[in-house]
Design goal:
single chain, 422 residues, alpha/beta, Urease, subunit C, domain 1, TIM Barrel, 2 domains, 8-stranded mixed β-sheet, 16 strands
Length: 422
């Protein structure tokens, strides 16, 4: 006799399926997705394993989606606004004051702030996060020492990728390259940098690729901001990606310069991105706040045109980036709210657009950070969220509070709104 399924979710609305469906889960995996209302023939064919389970949830017509993914986040910089509220609100102030604050970071401080983010993320339905882990002569190895234990502690409830990150440059920061390699050897998952902070950005990029090849890991760059008049670094990154055979292992965050290109120029960049298999991560909460500060009129939105890039066949995703610090004085780490924001910023109003927005926070975000088969289908890992919404448009329109988070087939969080009107 087959063992009982661990979990069944009945009467669920699932994107790509018509009508209510039942999702059956056994040993972390989805084993079946079938209509909840069956014909007599289907009912007769059902097995006991399909009709009973150790735990059954009646979704009651609510939307069930793949676990939310946050592919670009800075855990070690979260909630810094509590330590230093913005005085000028400029990008330069954010760079300078955050660098100053880093001298006071401790393992305990980083862990305390990071835990707040991670606990909230699990409740929001996030099943995986890629967090950048800063390494420089001031911070040295403090961030990796703080976040590695959290990766293990939260593993049953959330997958945490650690992207070792040179924020302050490499060629201009003595000892940083060696520290990057040391941090990777300690347990880093991904290597990256912000080449725009380095006086030799191309050498910065080469070093990152060298380290990626040494450790056989993916690459994640911060690249090409709208207010930077220097030549685009994207073509060089794409060329290195192809030359090194690193296709489908590179993603680029921000990329707001693409929003200022003429259509023919954007088409050329889209073709290059597609050929190199590079993913683009739009970070609208930060970029709407920081970009186009020099525009005196006809102010640009300053968000990577992910809708147009997707139409060109480029994998695109959205992410939180920062939470309540000088770079982004807002946010709580909920990717579903970022879906709403990107829909507003890029004027994405149709049902099909809303499905694209959700994909950028689930399936496409997973693809960007190397997580495969992140969808609701038999054989896939059961990382799911039950939302208090009946459609994708409703979920995007106003991110619902009520959610049930399922990680590896286990319920790990449930959030319910209690309202009393008098």
């Amino acid at each position: 006799m087959k063992p009982l399924p661990n979990l069944k979710i009945e009467n669920a609305i699932v994107i790509g399926y018509e009508g209510p469906h039942t999702i059956t889960i056994q040993n972390q995996f989805i084993t079946d997705v079938s209509p909840s209302i069956k014909t007599p023939a289907q009912t007769t064919a059902q097995t006991t394993a399909q009709t009973t389970a150790q735990t059954t949830i009646n979704a009651g017509g609510k939307l069930v989606i793949p676990g939310l993914i946050d592919p670009h986040l800075h855990l070690d910089k979260a909630f810094l606004l509590e330590q230093y509220p913005a005085q000028k609100g400029t990008f330069q102030e954010a760079l300078e004051e955050t660098f100053r604050l880093k001298s006071g970071f401790t393992i305990e401080d980083i862990q305390t702030r990071a835990k707040r983010v991670l606990d909230n993320a699990i409740a929001f339905g996030v099943s995986a996060i890629r967090s950048h882990v800063e390494v420089d002569p001031v911070l040295q190895l403090t961030s990796i020492k703080a976040l590695l234990p959290l990766k293990q502690a939260y593993a049953q409830r959330l997958t945490l990728q650690l992207a070792i990150f040179a924020q302050e440059g490499i060629t201009n920061q003595p000892g940083t390259e060696a520290m990057l390699r040391e941090t990777m050897s300690m347990g880093g998952d991904v290597i990256g940098s912000a080449p725009y902070t380095d006086p030799n950005p191309q050498q910065n990029i080469r070093i990152v690729f060298d380290i990626a090849q040494q450790f056989n890991c993916d690459i994640d760059f911060h690249l090409d901001f709208l207010d930077d008049d220097a030549p685009l670094l994207l073509p060089f990154v794409a060329q290195e990606t192809i030359r090194r055979g690193w296709q489908h292992r590179v993603c680029l965050g921000h990329m707001t310069r693409l929003a200022g290109l003429l259509p023919a120029e954007l088409q050329a960049m889209g073709t290059l991105l597609r050929e190199a298999g590079i993913s683009i991560l739009a970070l609208p909460a930060s970029d709407l706040y920081m970009m186009a500060r020099q525009d005196t009129h006809n102010v640009r939105r300053g968000v990577a045109p992910v809708d147009r890039l997707m139409a060109m066949g480029v994998n695109c995703a959205i992410a939180t980036n920062n939470i309540q610090n000088l770079f982004t004085p807002f946010g709580d780490g909920d990717p579903l709210k970022i879906c709403t924001l990107i829909a507003q910023a890029l004027q994405l109003g149709t049902t099909a657009h809303h499905q694209q927005c959700l994909a950028m926070a689930t399936t496409q975000a997973a693809q960007a950070i190397g997580i495969h088969q992140h969808s609701i289908a038999p054989g896939n890992i059961a990382d799911l969220v039950i939302l208090s919404a009946q459609s994708v448009s409703e979920a995007i329109g106003a991110a619902p509070i009520d959610r049930t988070t399922i990680k590896n087939g286990q319920i790990v969080a449930q959030t319910h709104l209690q309202r009393t009107l008098t």
